[in-house]
Amino acid sequence: MLEDNYVSNFWRSHNFRLEPWGNDYEPPIQISEELSLSESDVNPIVETDNWDCFESSQARSLPHRLIFIDGRRRLDAALVGGDGNTITYGVFGTIAVGAVVVDRTIPKASCIEIDIRRVLGFGGEQDAVSTPIPCPLGSKAELLYTAIKSNQPNTPEARGAIVQNAMLAAEEQLVSKLNVKNADTLVIRDGALRYESPTSTLGYIKTMHKQYLSEKYAALLWKLLPGQRTPIFNIKDRSQYSWYLKSGDSQHSPQQLGYHDLHGIVRLELSSKIDIETAKEIANQTCYLIPYYASHPSRDPRAPQNLAPVSALERELGRRMGDAILIKRRLQCFLASFGVNK
Amino acid sequence: MISSEPIGFVLGTKEATPLEFWIAVDAKKVLRLDDVVEVQTQRPDGQGIVHFYGVVDYVRTQYEGAQFDTDTFLVAKEGILPINISYTAHVQVTRIEPEEYLPPQPGDPVHLAIGKQLASALYFDSMDTPIPAGIMNNGNAAYFNYSFINGEKGAHVNISGVSGVATKTSYALFLLYSIFNSPVLGSYKANTKALIFNVKGEDLFFLDKLNQNYGNLENQKDKNKYELMNLPVQPFKSASFRATPKRDSRTIDSDLEQRSEGISVYLWSIRELCRDRLFRFLFTGEDLDRGNLSYLVTTVEERLARLAEENDQSDRQNRRKPQAYLQVEAFGEESKTQIKTFRDLIDFLEDKLLNDEDREENRRWLGRNVPATAEAMIRRLYGISSEVGHLIRGDLSPDEVAKYQLNPLASDAQLTVTDIHKLSARAQKFVVGVLLQKLFFQKEKQGREPVVFIVLDELNKYAPRDGRSPIKDLLVDIAERGRSLGIILIGAQQTASEVERRVVGQAAIRVVGRLDSAEAERPEYNFLTGSCRKRALFLKSGTMFVHQPEVPAPILVNFPFPAYATRKEEVFLSQAEITSIEADIDRF
After folding, report:
1. A317, B102, B258, B335 - which has most CB atoms within 10 Å?
2. Helices (H) and strands (E) in chain B, counts
3. How confident is the model at residue B166, as a pLDDT?
4. Arithmetic mean of pLDDT over chain B
């Protein structure tokens, strides 16, 4: 009960309240993944210097097992308040990470290691306290928001960063838990490789915020057909190999679907700690694997860039995170219960 | 007792009500149609626990979260999409204990009901007089409450189903077997009788023989079924077999081919026909629908009855037994004075109704009817003459008549099998009508106990929905009043919709085997739930839904392979019998 008192005292004394505007009115979380680079950091000739008409060779063999990893995050409630005259920004957030294992021999896909966490953090120096939110009707479970110590500045933007970092941490934990050492398994992470991960993990970047290649090399991107890739280039300061690949179905050209020619282009990343021959082999494997697991435009507006197992995983994660409106209502009730006495 | 581990939980995404709810079935658990489940719900105010019992009437699985139908390929064939399989079942609640009609809570654990809970779910535990009704899919015995069969609380059984899938007659026999071998009859056990009409082949003439399936092979599986229901494996112990006499034959022999021993013939004397006012059963519904014929039939029947009574009186005065023939004043060309054959009867009536209209005596026979009506009657009598002539006899001695009398109540045997399969449709109606009429009169005098069962197939023939006939009136009477008289009708037909509503409607217990699809939609089967109707279209042989007043859901049962032979080929011969038959063959 001492613990309970401690938590209530925290909330009573700090006078935190919900930001009256809902999360929907805030700008979406924009963590640009590719701002830290410039063209000069790229070495385009690690595989070949012939970018005019590159022919990637067939992969010698394909992995038997694929693991797709993804995470989702959500700001459950934005907080504002604090002692005296200072204003502190904080957030209740939910993060979810998980993986889909595809056994290509059967074949069968299944979700594994799905982990849902609820986090509470503040900008600036403000410490948070782990808080259970009661669930008055029905369910026996309670929402436990774990306090996170963050070093974000005290700005409204800190909220997104706190949740994002928590998610990345959870994802990193998941990757280390999977502990993939088998050469037969390829791990594909949805998004850039932003944390230390086992060498065989691929980063899968759907959107092109930044052009890595100078015009001379980038010309090849426009000529790629589904299942073809560019030569590998090296992003030096992130010590990563990377290549572009055209995903999608050869029967549906972008023109047919009314898209521009770069539609379906994705970028893949691989740690440059592994030797270039292995990297080449993996790059060749992706020429087959990525289009195979790509979803179709009739199913997913983000097709073919969005991978079908990943979109299923996203749906599953979203489901396990719980209903946003319901959770917000509970948080509101919780905070309101401290306002009565004031 | 309930199974220790829950089979699933009350589903939260569909509404749960006190009368029906859905179950989310646990992975790697099995829940099937007809399984019986139990849910314990804590009252939200903490004031006790409510038990819900129910029968599963719908089960389904589906890919949960699949957006498109073609996602199925991505999951099953290509293994690209991870997906959940949802396995849910719908439950029809049969019982709530205590009777508090609150909904179960989503997430309440659901258990399979077994043992006592199962009996309680289907009210078997509260039946004062349970008799086995068959085996349920879960391997337990199902029961009927005999009070709803014998007339105490309700009476009559109605069985529907298409031909040839071992439903109607087989189940009726099983039911009789179950009743006769059940301890609930108590002191009435020996006296309870049954009358079965054999309408197809000579199948029912071997009911007193053990089925070779049990004799030879020691069929353990089916034996166990009998054991489950606490029934012995034996043939019908006390059965008498009655057949029609051979047509156009001077001697009176049974008209059967497959069996000769233990069969006796049944027939009626002309005197009896007249005295007991059975004349009307010679006419079928179609005959009586037109014109004034039914009026004339009543008049003639009455006159014949009076004639027979006068005859009886004169026999008594002469100190002799009542004869089979009718002694009358001279009639016909040969001026006969005795009506000894059916043909004589027609001649006599022709004489009375159509000749010498002016004679005072003859006018009384005709009543106010016109000669055309009389002609119509004579025509019809000529028509049926060859079909019933061998059944209505005046040429026998009183002793013979007594010997061939068919009276299931007076018979020593518990079961009387009466063959009518060799008769024409009109003669069949006559025999059924006459037998039921006599039984009805007798029971009216005797009272309810002991109960007599009548197994009658093709009810639609005897009590059709449309039209009127003496036998239909009689069956309606039995349906409505038989309960207080102890006459229990186990009626069967292919289509209940074609049978007079009052006959089917009075049956407390309904049994449905496989149905035709158009038939299953008829309101007569409203006691079946929607899914039961669909399943009734493809029920397997020997499987049926049974419905009784005490249990709010139809129960699917099957019954064991009969212990008694229902065909000649099924008769079990012991080694001694085989030896004796072989010896017989050698002799020739």
Report:
1. A317
2. 19, 22
3. 65
4. 86
Cβ separation of B67 and A299 shorter than 8 Å?
Answer: yes
Q: What values do phi and psi take at A60, rounded to 5?
A: -65, -40
CB B85 within 8 A of CB B25: no
CA distance A312 to chain B (A): 6
- CB-defined contacts A:B, below 8 A: 40
**Residue B76 neighbours by CB under 8 Å, 6+ apart:** none
**Residue of B15, B12, B41, B35 lying closest to B108 (CA atoms):** B41
**Minimum distance, in Å, between the CA of residue A311 and any CA atom of chain B:** 9
Q: How far is A308 from chain B (nearest CA, A)?
A: 6
Q: Is B83 on the interface with A (CB under 8 A)?
A: yes
Q: How many CB atoms lie within 10 A of CB B555?
A: 24
Residues B237-247 as b/e (b if ≥16 CB within 10 A, e otherwise) read eebbbbbbbbe
What does B287-350 look like in DSSP terms, one character per residue? Answer: HHHSTTHHHHHHHHHHHHHHHHHHHHHHHHHTT-PPPSSEEEEEETTTTEEEE-SHHHHHHHHH
Give the mean pLDDT of B206-215: 82
Radius of gyration of the CA atoms of chain B, in A: 30
**Whether the predicted pLDDT of A158 surpasses 80:** yes
Q: Which of A223-227, B14-18, B479-483 has the lowest mean pLDDT?
A: A223-227
What per-residue confidence (pLDDT) applies to B356? Answer: 64
Closest CA to B480 of B503, B462, B464: B503
Q: Which two tokens stand for residue A155?
A: 């700005």
> Which of A111, A308, A313 faces B74 most closely, judged by CB atoms?
A308
Q: Interface pTM (ipTM) of the complex?
A: 0.78
Across the range B534-538, mean pLDDT stands at 88
Across residues A44-57, what is the average pLDDT?
81
pTM of the model as a whole: 0.80
Pick A312's closest partner by Cβ from B78, B82, B106: B82
- Interface probe, candidates B9, B69, B70, B81, chain A, greatest A C-beta count within 10 A: B81
Q: Is B66 on the interface with A (CB under 8 A)?
A: no
pLDDT at B178 over 60: yes
- Around Cβ B479, how many Cβ atoms within 10 Å? 25
Contact A312/B65, CB-based, under 8 Å?
yes
State which residue of chain A sits closest to B81, comparing Cα positions: A309
Q: Which two tokens stand for residue A89?
A: 């920004």
Contacts of B44 in chain A (CB under 8 A): none
For B350-405, how does the pLDDT look when each residue is reduced to its tens digit (9 = 90+)? 888 887 666 667 777 877 778 888 888 888 899 888 888 888 888 888 888 888 88
Q: Which of A103, A138, A319 sits opposite B79 (nearest CB)?
A: A103
Q: B19 to chain A nearest CA, in Å?
A: 22
Q: How far apart are CA B33 and CA B180, in angstroms?
A: 31
Comparing C-alpha atoms, which of B382, B384, B366 is closest to residue B374? B366
Contact partners, residue B63, CB within 8 Å, separation at least 6: B71, B72, B75, B83, B84, B85, B86
Indicate the residue of A109, A315, A316 with minimum beta-carbon distance to B79: A109
Q: What sign does the CA torsion over B281, B287, B291, B293 have?
A: negative
Distance from CA of B221 to the nearest CA of A (A): 40
Out of B77, B78, B81, closest to residue A312 by CB: B81
- Read off φ and ψ for residue A101, nearest 5 degrees: -100, 125
**Cβ-based burial of A167 (10 A; exposed 0-12, middle 13-18, buried ≥19):** buried
Q: What is the pLDDT of residue B40?
A: 92
Contact status, residue B227 vs residue B471, Cβ threshold 8 Å: no
Q: Is the separation of the CB atoms in B136 and B32 below 8 Å?
A: no
pLDDT of amino acid A331: 86
Helical packing angle, B470-485 and B425-446, nearest 10°: 30
